[in-house]
Structure formats: C-alpha cells, structure tokens
Amino acid sequence: MRLWNVFRKSVREQLREPWGLALTLGTAPFFVLLYWLFFGGSTPFVVLVLEEGRIVKHASKKPKSRELQRKNKTSLQEQTPSTPSVGEQLVKLLGSLKRPRGGLLMKVSLVGSRAEAQQRLAQKQAAALVILPQGLSGALGLGEGDNARERKKLKMRIVGDFTDPLYAGAAIALNAALERFVREATNSKMPVDIAKEAIARSDQRTEFENYVPGLLILSVVMLIFSAAMTITYEVEMGTLRRLQLSNISAFELLSGIAFSQVLLGVLSILLTFGVAVALGFRSQGPLWVAILVGAVTSLSIMGVAMIVASFARTVTEAFLLSNFPLFLLMFFSGAVRPIPKVPLLTLWGREVGLYDLLQPTHAVVALNKILTLGASLSEVLFEILAVLCLTILYFGVGVGLFHLRRMRIA
Amino acid sequence: MFDAKGPHGEENRPLVHYTNGTSHRKISSGTPVRVAEETNKHSSEEEAEGLDASGEWISDDSSRMTPMPVPSFASLQQRAGHQRESHALELRGLTKRYGALVAVDALDLSINRGEIFGVLGPNGAGKTTTIQMICGLLKPDAGDIWVMGSSLASSPHLRRHIGVCPQQLVLWGKMTPLEQLVFLASTYDVPEKVARERALSMLEALGLWEKRDTLAKHLSGGMKRRLNLLMALIHEPSILVLDEPEAGLDPQSRVLVRDYVRDWVQGAQRTVILTSHNIDEVERLADRVAIMDRGRLLSLDTPDRLKRDHQQGDLLEIELLDAAQPYLEEALFVLRQFSSDLSWEGTIVAIRMGALVEHLSFVLGVFRRFQIDIQGLRMRPSTLEDVFISLTGRALRDE
Q: Hey, of A21, A234, A246, which one would you mutate to test binding to chain B, going by the most B CBs within 10 A of its CB?
C-alpha cells in the first residue's frame, strides 16, 4: 500500500513537471524522427572513382548520353576509343545498383586526383574511393593494349577509413560490383558462384530501421537520469528525513519511484515505436514482445539508478554520476556497435561474458532477434530471463546501498 | 520528574523518594536540590513549600508529603519503570561522539506528558544532535532513550510517536498541501479517508483551507511554514519536536501557531520539545526550559525559576543631563556599596541589582542628594536571555 502511494505521488509529481516529462518521453521519438529526416530510409554510399593516368576535367560530371547508357547495357566490350572511359563505365554501373527495397545503393562520381579524393574521405564526404589502375582498360580488353599478362599485374583498390562503418558497407557492395564489372568486361565466368544470403529478412532493412533498436535502448537507458534525479531530489529537499521517520522502507520508497519511472519508460518506448512505424519502420517479429523487452529493461535500469542515487546528495550530483553508467550501458552493451565477447564462465552450457552483466546487452540481442529476425516470445525468453535476473541483482544492490547510505540510522 | 547532571557535573543519586501522601503517586527522585526544583513546580501550594538542604520537606502538612526511607535497588528499578511510563520521553546517559568531539555528554533528562519543553543552547551545544537521537535519526553511542516508557533502541517503531517540524521547510513543492498531508499520513499507515478528514481539519485550523489544492511551491513563506508544522502532526504523534517554529512567520501567524501548539498539547496530554535561538519564543511557550552547552545540561527549570535562581538583577540605565557634574563620582561611590555591577560611560550610568523596583527610590535619592541632574531612566527586568548568557558566556560560537 505504501509502495502504491509512493508510486501515485511520483506519477503526480512527474505530470506536474511538463518539461521533464516531455524530455523523458520525447527524446527517443524525436531522434527517430531526426534519423528518418537524415536518412529517409536508406542513404546511398558516396563512392569516388579515380582513374590513374587520366585527367578528369569535371570530376563530378556524370555520363548523360542516352546512347552511352544503351551501349553500356549491351556490352562493355563493345566500347570503342570514342566511347566513355573505363572509369566512366564503372561509374555508370555502380550508379545503377539498387537496394533490395528500392533506392540507390551508391552515389558515384569521378575524381581528378588522389589528393582530392583523400580530402573528401577524411572529411567524411565519401565512404570509399575506388582507384582504377592505369592500363585497366587495355587489361580488360576495353581499349588498346589488351594483354592478359598485364591483367595479372593490375590491382583495383578500395580505399577508405576502416574505422568508418559506412566504409565497411560500401566496400562489401563495391567488392561484389567490381567483380561483376571485371567478369562482364572480360566475359569470364567464376567456376563457382558466390552469393550473399540474408537470414530472415535482414537484407530488407533500411539504414533508418537499423537505428531504431539502438534508439529504443537509448530511451530506456536514459531513464537512469530521471530516476536517479527523482530519488536524489528527496534527499536534497530533506523530504527523505520525513520518510525516514515514518514506517516506509527503502524498498517501498524506491520501488514506488522506480515503477513510476518504468511507466514513463514504457510510454516512451510506445511513442518511439509509434513514430518509427509511422515513418516506415517494419518489425519482423511481434511488436508487443519488443515492448515487453523494453519494459523489463526499463525496470532493470532502475537498480542502476538507485545505486547512483545512493552516492549522490544533490540532483546535480545525480546527473553527473549518471553519465558513467549511461556510457557504460550504451557503449559496452552493443547498443551502439557490436562488442566482442569477453568470456567469464560457462553456466548451464552457455558462455557468460563480462558484458552480459549489463542489462542492455541482452535487450540488444532480444530486440535484434524480434525486430530484424522475426523472433517470437519463446525465442527471446532466455534474454528476458537474463534481464530479469540482472534486474533482481541490481535492484537488490540499489535498495541495500540506499538503505545503508541514506535511510539507515547512523 | 527529571534527573540531570548539574552544571558542575554532580551525580544524580536518588537519595530520597517523595510521594504524595494520599495517592502515593511518585512525584520525583534525584538529588535533593533537583528534586526541590522540580517538585516545586507541581502546584502553587507545593511551590510554597520546598526542601531544605538535607532533603527534608519544610511543610506544615507533613501528612501530605512524607519523606521516604532510601529504597532497595529492586524497588527503585520497579519504580523507575512506573516513572518512565508517566514520562513522554526520558534520556538516560545519552552520549554521542564524533571522533574526539563529544557532542552530547551523558545527558539525563525527563520530559513529562502534556508539557512544552524548551531546549536552549548556543551553536554546538548539542541540541540538534540530541533532537536527532530523540527522533531516531541518529544512534547514540551510549545511553538510552525511553519513549512512553519503552526503550527506543529495542523498539524502533516508537519513532512513529514523534513528529518533527524542522526549521527548514521540508515540503514536496509539486504537491498540494492536502495531497502531501494525505501522502505522509499513508506512510504511517493512516487510512486514506481518515487522513483526508484529519488533513482538512488541520488545514482549516491553521488558515490553509483555501490553499488546500494549491501546489506547495506557490504558497507564501508563512503558509509553507504552517504547512511544515502540520506535516509533523498529521500522523498524530504524542511528541512533537519543534525547531524554531516561529522563524519566518508574521506576528499574526506567530500567534496562530502558538495557540495551535498550546491547544494541541493540552488536548490530549501531548508533549512538545521546542528548540530555538529565540529565547523570547521559548520563554513564551515553554513550561520548562533546559539550557545546554557543550553537550551537557547546565540548568533546567521553569523560565520564572531559572530567572530567579540565576538572576543577576534587573538593569537600570540612568541618562545624565551632563557627564561632567560635580559630585558624580561621590554618588557612584555610594551606589557601589549596594551594587557591584555598576558602570558609567559618558552620560549613561547602568546599575544591575535584584528587586530594583524596591530600591529605585533609594537610587534616585542618592542622585538627588548629590545634586546630579538626570535626563531620563530606563528599567529592564531580568530576562531568560540574561540567564542564558550568564550560564553559557558571551563568547561567540561557530558551528
């Protein structure tokens, strides 16, 4: 009953703090909208092509002639010295590639020099640079000097910043496209075909859709701030002293506040999904299971917020301290980018890693399974149970610490 | 009723035990002097009596008050139990240390039911530490606290009998007065319906009815302070701890709060422990006053008796027409024979002596006889502040 009263009080106070409420509820949906505005689904990889030994007057000029396009379609081998260069032909081919759900895969342009290309790569204006070696045209039999021996020496290079995730995507697509270009030009065939095959319908995901799970995790992890600050507010204002004198326990007080925060978290998740779906996001699995995962993860985050609140005496301190677990939970859970497993032990046949101690690690896996691979509840039960176990652990530590540091009689 | 170490640290041995002859109700125990002080406050009749130095009653009605022989240890223990039940609060050897600093030093104190008990002391006297231990927010290093006859150490739930109104405003700004009173009551397991009715009645009594649905952060300072008081009372405690209750209140609100507290105490034999730096406030409200310093109890009695026992006399300030008058020094020489506390600075002569009113004509006669022209005079009776300063000294204290 006391827990319920704390919950009601906490909800009431949150509703009377419109700015705080708007920020807590609206941050993740707002970022979803921003991502959609920036990517609009999927943005093409920006690729530069450099032909060594050739002067390009207008680096960004695209082949516009319809006749040229027609010829490109028939056969690359039919080109004459008056036809476009090998670079221009490659630009044409790459520019025509499409994503599985439509939309250009690449936005390609020719550059005049390595220096210019390097600069654009460094400024993140392009994801990759394809360098076509001098004599490639002849080696491919597209012009003068067709020479099989020369062909072996030539090397096409895909240059880029290996730390840039866009480079990885562009390089994979370019590798396949260049291979096709060479095979078509030389009219050769691979002894075996190499084909990419997506699990579930992961090839159908747009870049925008890829960001949605991460944003969901962010909206949940961000609850650390509001929960820790709400708890610490009682300490800073001295109202905790009043509660200390009453019959209320640390568990009742913290749980009441925590559940009100979870309610906010669930609302935020619903809003985030709502906005994402309205903007074209498609979940492969049942959305309610994803919402359940989000709700359970919200609850588990409360324990972390309680630990923060145990060490903070003011709301400002709570805000500053919350940054540490926030970054830990975001960057080491795989929510931002995959993290290699650091094995600790094996439990019931499952390897438990260091980052498995972070609740969002399991939430990220579960959300990926549901949203991208179409998993059902039974297929993510392990992850949900793992999050629940961690919830109990962190909740227990949080309540214990708060009792010792803030509510126990000194 | 109380048992305390004196200002010089004398032990409180229960030398004699006095009973009311008809009902055999325990009146007091303690050192003869303390018992005398305390027993004297029971009634005006008793006040007229008193004790001599050996602890014998000086009374015509010997059948009513009879000195008892020294009791056995077992019977003392039994009596102590009965006595505790009659006390709202009892502190026994209460001690709290912070490293080398002894914040509260073996404090013994008993506070009666139905009493407003003032605690005075300079900064660092140990008032706050004592209050925090009484409220159950601090654990004593030694000694025990008895609330309504039961030990607080063994029954922490007794804290619910205590309501605390701190000096600083401790309110939930984003809740209305009604909401926060009902919420706080719920943390003491008061049913919501009961809490609501009680809260509404309290809000009305302290002039907050019309603001019952206004967020606390939008209330005026005085309203917040009144609400702060109600927050301490919503669960109907038996003991109320008030820290500077009148700070920040306008005169009308002060009277309202004072009357409310008095009614609250008288209504159901409840107890108020009042701490304040405002000595006038304590003097107006408190039935008994304890003066503490450096963690120890220096003196404890009714304000009137404290003033009488520790009086240094009333103060008379005489303003002379001219500082350079012939025979002035001669006149002051004569007056010094009657009061050693005499000072002269410019045109002001200040004399402190007991029963000043009775001696006023003599003082003025001396001035007249030596033909000293007087422009005016001011008289100020001895105050509790004088007692406080005389006991704790004039040196500034920093927290």
A: A246
B233 shares contact with chain A (CB less than 8 Å): no
Look at B156 and A409 and tell me if their CB atoms are within 8 Å.
yes
Q: What is the DSSP letter of A49?
A: E
List chain A residues with CB under 8 Å of B186.
Answer: 1-2, 5
Give the number of domains in chain A.
2
Report pLDDT digits (tens) over A172-221: 889 988 888 888 888 888 778 777 787 777 777 777 888 888 888 888 89
The domains of chain B, with CATH numbers, are 8-71 (no CATH), 111-307 (3.40.50.300), 313-381 (3.30.70.870)
A317-369 pLDDT per residue, tens: 999 999 999 988 888 887 777 777 787 888 777 788 888 889 889 998 999 89
ipTM for the assembly:
0.73
Average pLDDT over residues B190-215: 95
- Cβ within 8 Å, pair A237-B173: yes
Q: What whole-number distance in Å separates Cα of residue A110 and Cα of residue A63?
A: 10
Does the structure show a pLDDT above 50 at B276?
Answer: yes
**Chain A CB within 8 Å of residue B135 CB:** yes
pLDDT of B118 > 50? The answer is: yes
Given an 8 Å threshold on Cβ–Cβ distance, is A245 in contact with B173?
A: no
Inter-chain CB proximity A237 and B172 less than 8 Å: yes
Kindly report the backbone phi and psi dihedral angles of residue B90, in degrees, each rounded to the nearest multiple of 5, phi listed first.
Answer: -140, 130
Residue with tokens 């408190």, as numbered in its chain: B286
Choosing from A183, A204, A225, the residue where a domain stops is: A204
Confidence of residue B48 (pLDDT cuts 50, 70, 90): very low
- List pLDDT tens digits, range A222-251: 899 999 999 999 999 999 988 988 889 999
Report the residue of A8, A9, A233, A254 to disrupt the B interface, i.e. the one with the largest count of B CBs within 10 Å.
Answer: A9
Place of tokens 């009666």: B112
The pLDDT > 90 percentage for chain B reads 32
Structural domain that includes position A141: 45-204
DSSP line for A213-279: HHHHHHHHHTHHHHHHHHHHHHHHHSHHHHHHHSS--HHHHHHHHHHHHHHHHHHHHHHHHHHHHHT
Q: What are phi and psi of B291, to 5 degrees?
A: -110, 120
Partner-chain contact A9 B170, CB within 8 Å? no
Look at A245 and B159 and tell me if their CB atoms are within 8 Å: yes
